[in-house]
Amino acid sequence: MTRRYGGLQVDIMHIMEGFLPSPWWQVWFLVSLPFLVIGLYQVNRLVQEKREALPLLAVAGAFVFVLSSLKLPSFNGSCSHPTGTGLGAVLFGPCIAGVLGLIVLVFQAVFLAHGGLTTLGANVFSMGIAGPAVAYAIYKAGTRVGANTYATVFVAAALADLFTYVVTSIQLALAFPGTAGFFGAFSAFAAIFAVTQIPLAIIEGAVIALVFKYIVQVKPEILTRLNLLSESTVRKLREASA
Amino acid sequence: MKYGMEIAVAALIVVFAAVFLYQDAAIRASGEEAWGGADGNAADLIEASGYEPWVDPFWEPPSGEIESLLFALQAAIGAVVIGYIFGYWRGSRKTA
Questions:
Q1: Which of A76, A125, A137, A181 has the fewest CB within 10 Å, making it most exposed?
Q2: Which domain does B69 fall in, by range?
Q3: What is the pTM for the complete model shown?
Q4: In a domain, A132, yes or no
Q5: Given B16, B32, B81, which is nearest A199 (Cβ)?
């Protein structure tokens, strides 16, 4: 959202500080909380049982940092940024992705006035949990039916990005149904976000699929250890790019 | 193909940039201002209904330059971590 603060234009892809009235901001904190608690528990288990996966967790988090700082021009004369949470979601599931999203959103809310502390719950839910849940489900379904791994990662990450903004639109429409009602407001918000976001979602999906390829190349044993890929799939993927 | 995916991603980014340049030219020709935040319209939509944000950010970057600095810093932190870990993995694979 763009607002002017004394001539300075601040544009925000997350819901801005103060833009969710009571009770909605509290509701979204409550909705996000259980996922974050599970996420922290899972991170803790990772630290104790699968320490060798920790660098991968750091990469997933760093990826959210990089991608969510890049505001890209999109096709309809406005800018938005990718979320980058698709990678963490595919690798570690939506709860841990929620924790990664929380870290980045706090950074942006505190240092950049981007997003906000009162809207943190809603933004963590859309970017850290709901989008990643879609990515995770698609990845699991894709590997089960034996689809091409990179294509699956591409679709998972791209739809995670898109779904994040679908959820943002739902959150805004619930809080601001206006005279059009929930569905009228939803389509108005979704029209604003989605058009901008589709091209960015495609780019994000492609970049994350590429990073996944590099992980397969340099550290495939972590992927098998996390039960993300079978050893035979890893061998096949490595032979294909050798 | 060894670099098939790299080529595909690079091509995608080139197409993305080309569409941007084309649209930018069209928008400039029409004399409009563009490339603000996607959601200016969403904020307008909300504020048109008479809603006032009930709390403001307690701190904002004092200028666009400082905001860019902090965004660049955010990207740099992420990039350093990614580069370090991938480099470490690659190095340990070669010497193993």
A1: A181
A2: 63-96
A3: 0.89
A4: yes
A5: B16
Residues B46 and B67 in one domain: no
Helix A149-175 vs helix A24-49: crossing angle, to nearest 10:
150
Range of the domain at A59: 12-210
User: pLDDT tens for residues A177-229?
Assistant: 877 889 988 888 888 777 778 888 999 999 999 999 999 999 999 999 999 99
* Same domain for B67 and B48: no
Please give the structure tokens belonging to residue B46: 């909300």
Option in B13, B42, B61 nearest A192 (CB): B42
When divided into structural domains, chain B yields a total of 2
B36 and chain A in contact, CB less than 8 A? yes
Judged against a pLDDT cut of 60, whether residue A12 lies above it is answered with no
In a domain, B68, yes or no: yes
Residues B5 and B42 in one domain: yes
List Cβ neighbours of A156 (8 Å cut-off, separation of 6 or more).
A86, A89, A90, A134, A135, A136, A138, A139, A142, A205
Q: In this structure, what token pair is assigned to residue A61?
A: 């988090």
Domains identified in chain A, total number? 1
Answer for the pair B67, A123: CB distance below 8 angstroms, yes or no. no
A78·B36 Cβ contact <8 A: yes
Q: What is the pLDDT of residues A120-148, one digit of tens each?
A: 999 999 999 999 999 999 999 999 999 99
Look over chain B and give the mean of its residue pLDDT values, rounded to a whole number: 84
Query: Of chain B residues 38-57, which have a CB less than 8 A from chain A?
Result: 38-43, 45-46, 49, 51, 53-57
